[in-house]
Amino acid sequence: MTGRVREQAAKRSREEWRQILEGVTGRVIHEAPLRDYTSFHIGGPAEVLVEPADLEDLCRLTAQAHRARAPLFVVGGTNLLVRDGGIRGLVVSLARFKHIKEEPDHVLYAEGGVGMPTLIGYAIRRSLAGLEWGAGIPGTVAGCVVMNAGTRLGEMRQAVKAVRLVDPRGHVKDIAAVDIPFSYRRAHVPRGIVAGVWLQLRPGDHDVIERTVKDYLQYRKETQPLTMPSAGCVFKNPPKDSAGRLIEAAGLKGARVGDAQVSEKHANFMVNLGQAQAAEVLTLIRKVRHAVKKASGVTLELELKVVGQA
Ligand code: EPU
């Protein structure tokens, strides 16, 4: 996800929003509960949530929001904790950006809202290798680029050829991957919204690709709480170690604050047992960091992105 939330003192009136959203054809929801848009099922409302209909609509929306100085935030929804007060301003969901197109030389173009599982399924059907490392990652392709999502087997930067960005003024810019600095769980994409991604894959053996993906998915199902609401891994792995191992060693597997719990299955996941509040997750995060620091001297860094107002 890209864009920055500039906190605003006051909300805008419906009339102001009507002007900002003039001509936008996608879906508009005022006071949209963001818990319905995040894998954690946590978070207060978005002042206005928009699902642009297509690229042109997204450009119009971005340009008009920019002219009106309305803050804009893109919600991918998986590696995200939205605070209980929600997000002031405009929240954009790429829920309608779902197309995948095959181009010459084993390149796929995926719109930003395509889910990684869908993209990997497509690559398997076309016998294209290069995304197997991402099996089980639930995020959107745009979210995965911006986070440089990865696992022990690989990461997004290995597959990205170029990124289609809508800049804050609403202009489309295509940026080659060589011009994007990637680091651990972060791609330094210029400000804007990732509307689509070109992925350079390579021809492979259908059955081998499928088996690799299935085996990896099985490993993740066995070791991660994939059936419970969560935001994936909460902390980055410290160099040459595992945050999950350190949290377990500090005795915090299963620790709870309200309905927020350190997963019993994988200690670097926090799960929502039902009605967890963002404030409870944040308290649990502080407890975990404190305990790990005390037990092993390591300061854990957040992988999870925390946004919105308390
Ligand atoms: N471990 C424990 N206790 C735990 C969890 C793990 O002792 O509660 C130990 C395991 O036994 C193993 C080691 O830690 O020896 C590594 O565990 P695992 O293979 O599960 O990998 P990880 O380093 O914890 C990373 C990624 C995951 C990704 C997995 C699988 C990060 C921060 N984590 O986890 O990514 O799914 O590898 O490839 O990079 C995510 O980014 O959201 C995420 C979950």
Shape: globular
> How would you classify the quaternary structure?
single chain
The residue-averaged pLDDT reads 95
| Secondary-structure element string | HEEHEEEEEHEHEEEEEEEEHEHEEEHE
Spatial strand arrangement across the major sheet = 6-7-15-11-12
Tell me which ligands are bound.
uridine-diphosphate-2(N-acetylglucosaminyl) butyric acid
Low-pLDDT runs of 5+ residues are 1-8
Structural class of the secondary structure composition?
A: alpha+beta
- Got a strand count? 21
CA gyration radius, whole angstroms = 20 Å
Note the main attributes of this structure.
binds uridine-diphosphate-2(N-acetylglucosaminyl) butyric acid, alpha+beta, 21 strands, 5-stranded antiparallel β-sheet, 7 helices
Tell me about this structure.
The chain is an alpha+beta fold. It has helices at residues 14-20, 55-67, 116-125, 141-146, 206-223, 243-249, 278-296; strands at residues 27-33, 45-51, 72-74, 80-82, 87-92, 100-103, 107-111, 128-129, 150-151, 154-155, 160-166, 172-176, 182-183, 186-187, 193-200, 202-203, 230-233, 256-257, 260-262, 269-272, 305-307. The strands form seven sheets. A five-stranded antiparallel sheet has the order 6-7-15-11-12. It has a four-stranded mixed sheet with strand order 1-2-5-3, with helices on one face. A four-stranded antiparallel sheet has the order 17-20-19-18. A hairpin with a 2-residue loop joins β18 and β19 (260-262). The longest helix has 19 residues, at 278-296. The radius of gyration is 20 Å and the shape is globular. The protein binds uridine-diphosphate-2(N-acetylglucosaminyl) butyric acid.
